[in-house]
Design brief:
Elements (H helix, E strand, L loop, with lengths): L20 H29 L2 H8 L3 H7 L7 H12 L15 H17 L2 H12 L24 H11 L2 H15 L18 E3 L1 H17 L14 H14 L11 E3 L19 H17 L7 H17 L19 E6 L5 E7 L8 H16 L8 H15 E3 L5 E3 L2 E2 L14 H6 L2 E2 L3 H17 L30 E5 L6 E3 L5 E3 L13 H8 L4 E5 L5 H7 L3 E5 L15 H12 L3 E5 L11 H5 L4 E8 L11 E4 L10 E4 L3 E6 L3 E7 L2 E9 L2 E6 L19 H15 L2
Parallel strand pairs: 9-12, 9-13, 13-14, 14-21
Antiparallel strand pairs: 1-2, 3-4, 5-6, 7-8, 10-11, 15-18, 16-17, 19-20, 20-21
């Protein structure tokens, strides 16, 4: 959401502030000309390669945004695969022929695209997701072609992409579609123990597949519309208990006690021919089924309340299943087998003899089992994400890396045109039905293995997004190139993972809005706000390092700051009456508490705003303590698409950012520094970013909220590298945390 402006005509910006003004204008014009030429070339490529659906979605955007969304500059395997899909598959399809339907195959593909968008801020990924969902969700929220009578969990999965679109765009139609899917689950048949039937046609059966199809969507839905926690207020009690129940029923009843692996299916009635008459379990541990369950756990934990009593049980279940998965990882390739615990053997085997002795027996031939792509990608994703977020031990990062390397070597072909092909995904796997599927070893090996399957591709994208965060790319370009705003941007080194909490203020900025169902929710510079106003991408920058995100919806007393266990505290754009009829102003008690917290080693980030959009008088009573004074002016005023007025040169050598680049700060104040504060970034004589070391702590002051979603998520202003800047600020803050 753009800031509300009271000035309708342009105001002079950055004029006659230094003797170098004319030189700066000339340099800026040259840079803009070069960038516009690049944009036009990239637009030509995009027009020639993107699908009709995606091109239509991008057509309403600015040329700069379209350039930011082109897949031309993809670099990592995940980015290359996302660009391949955008180029080769029409939105709303699961194959090059352009056909598709509302189903889990499309859903997991879009999950992968969403993960890539979150990890790279490539706006083309989001445009593809939106165009795909819009193929099915109509203006009134109806899902075209949805068959409710089937009561299949598979058809719930794509709700995740639908809910993402609501959270980003705030369009009611997506919320209505998500509610429809949640309402369907209220009608889903259950086993005697309370577990969801996988489908109406599979009575009394839980399949591991269903964990991924339903539970991450439900967790995201409840966090968006039900959760009475940090982001949402005045909400009814949550229903996370049942999500935990579904996942823990599987952990309790579907585990093979010998291998520790979970079996594909569990018939609680024990009536199916494939079901063991004592346990009700299917015969084998199928790789992709196990992968669905592992991914479900790490994705559900994204949304699960931190204080929920069942959260530790879910983390424990994840550790149990991943320990079993790692035991059967192929030591040579780093990958996993279609039937997980029956690798093929060739050569002499030790065999038990009739007399009970163990002797060297005859050679055993290959049993036909094979390494499978989708499961290998799923385990890579679950391992890497689990390590990054602290659910799994750091040692699990090494097998994830081995697996990712193995995936590239065994399953990926890099084509001459720059696209990728993923080989080795089993097309399907099930139990019972017609024709009958026995779920035994022979059955799983009979199913077709195909190339570029959407389920495998989606899992590959998920794995790639995590591996990019686990092993961030470093620029091959010279660090000495200044004022760069292209893909050559060189980010600073990441800090080592550590136990840090980043706290965002919800007291001095406590604006609320009504969601699609009339619930009151906090928004504006909040971790959980995915809309233009939010800090969700900034939050993900912290989460790259395993940082815990928290929100303080009360005054920052000494006790509140101590209870938060935060090492980093962010206050952005304090409210004024036009923004919030009941604003909370900075006072002496709050200032004393914050100053004491900083002096003890805290890292304080202060993001101000322009004179018409934030409060200065009271806020400066805090900032002045550190020698950072925010001036109540309107600077860098941008009218319409005159983006140049908001350009700010970030030079190299700041100690926070990588090589220099051109940033975008629209409608800002300025800073006057004194005492311990030092100017870090200036623009034509105006201080834009300052840093102050006080006691054991440090304060960063910025003249704008700056790194909120609208200007860093790649959908609009990706050319200004705000996404990388957010990562740099987060990395610096973590490195400074005591």
């Amino acid at each position: 959401m753009e800031k509300i402006k009271k000035h309708t005509r342009p105001t002079p910006n950055r004029q006659l502030r230094t003797g170098n003004f004319n030189k700066a204008v000339s340099w800026t014009a040259t840079l803009r000309t070069k960038r516009n030429s690049t944009v036009q070339l990239v637009k030509i490529f995009a027009t020639a390669t993107l699908t009709i659906g995606l091109a239509a979605a991008a057509a309403a955007q600015t040329p700069a945004a379209a350039a930011a969304q082109t897949p031309a500059a993809a670099a990592t395997p995940g980015q290359k695969m996302a660009a391949t899909i955008i180029r080769q598959w029409a939105a709303g399809s699961t194959n090059p022929a352009g056909t598709g339907q509302w189903a889990y195959e499309e859903g997991v593909l879009l999950d992968g695209m969403a993960a890539e968008w979150h990890a790279t801020a490539d706006g083309a990924d989001f445009a593809y997701i939106k165009a795909s969902v819009d193929k099915y969700v109509t203006a009134d929220g109806t899902i075209a072609g949805f068959k409710a009578s089937g009561h299949t969990l598979d058809d719930i999965e794509m709700g995740r992409a639908t809910l993402l679109l609501y959270r980003v765009t705030q369009q009611d139609k997506y919320a209505k579609a998500a509610k429809f899917l949640e309402d369907q689950l209220a009608l889903q048949p259950r086993t005697a123990s309370g577990g969801y039937w996988h489908k109406q046609t599979y009575p009394n059966q839980m399949w591991l597949d269903g964990a991924y199809m339903a539970e991450p969507f439900r967790a995201a839905y409840f966090a968006t519309f039900q959760r009475p926690a940090e982001f949402y207020i005045d909400a009814p009690p949550s229903r996370f208990d049942d999500i935990a129940k579904q996942l823990l029923l599987m952990d309790e009843h579907m585990r093979d006690p010998k291998s520790g692996l979970l079996r594909h299916g569990w018939d609680e009635s024990k009536s199916m021919p494939w079901a063991d008459k004592q346990t009700g379990l299917s015969p084998e541990a199928w790789g992709r089924a196990e992968g669905w369950y592992c991914m479900a756990l790490v994705d559900v934990l994204d949304w699960f309340p931190a204080d929920h009593p069942q959260r530790p049980a879910l983390v424990a279940a994840l550790n149990r299943v991943m320990a079993a998965v790692l035991k059967v990882q192929d030591p040579k390739s780093g990958l996993w087998w279609e039937v997980m615990d029956q690798p093929p053997h060739s050569g002499p085997m030790m065999q038990k003899q009739p007399d009970g002795s163990i002797r060297l027996g005859v050679a055993k031939s290959d049993n036909g089992n094979y390494l499978e792509a989708s499961a290998s990608c799923m385990f890579t994703y679950a391992l890497a994400k689990g390590v990054r977020l602290g659910y799994l031990p750091p040692a699990d990062a090494a097998p994830a890396k081995r697996a990712w390397d193995g995936i590239q070597k065994r399953f990926i072909t890099a084509n001459p045109d720059g696209t990728l092909t993923l080989h080795g995904t089993v097309k399907v796997g099930g139990l019972g039905g017609t024709p009958y599927r026995a779920g035994d070893f022979a059955y799983y090996l009979k199913e077709a293995v195909v190339d570029q399957d959407s389920k495998g591709v989606g899992a590959f994208l998920l794995a790639g997004s995590e591996m990019d965060q686990a092993s961030p790319p470093t620029s091959a370009q010279s660090a000495g190139v200044a004022f760069e705003n292209s893909k050559k941007y060189q980010a600073r080194d990441q800090p080592h993972p550590t136990s840090v909490t980043a706290l965002v203020d919800a007291w001095f900025n406590s604006q609320t809005r009504k969601n699609a169902f009339g619930q009151t929710e906090l928004f504006h510079y909040k971790w959980n706000d995915d809309s233009n106003n939010g800090y969700s991408f900034f939050g993900r920058a912290f989460r790259r390092y395993g940082v815990t995100l928290a929100t303080l919806p009360a005054a920052p007393t000494r006790a509140a700051l101590a209870d938060s266990k935060a090492q980093i505290y962010i206050i952005a754009s304090p409210d004024i009456p036009s923004k919030n009829p009941d604003p909370h102003y900075m006072d002496k008690a709050s200032g004393d508490a914050i100053e004491a917290w900083v002096r003890a080693g805290g890292v304080l980030l202060l993001f101000s705003n322009d004179r018409d959009n934030t409060e200065f008088t009271h806020f400066d009573t805090l900032a002045d303590r550190f020698g950072i004074h925010f001036n109540p002016v309107l600077s860098h005023h941008v009218v319409g698409d005159d983006h140049a007025s908001g350009e700010v040169v970030i030079p190299p050598g700041t100690g926070i950012f990588g090589s220099g680049f051109t940033a975008f700060m629209k409608d800002t104040c300025t800073i006057t520094v004194s005492g311990p504060a030092k100017a870090l970034v200036t623009d034509h004589g105006d201080v834009m970013i300052a840093v102050s070391h006080v006691g054991k702590g440090v304060v960063l002051g910025v003249v704008d909220p700056w790194i909120y979603n609208e200007y860093i998520d790649g959908r609009k202003m990706g050319q200004y590298r705000g996404f990388e800047a957010a990562q740099d600020v987060a990395a610096w803050a973590v490195s400074q945390a005591k």
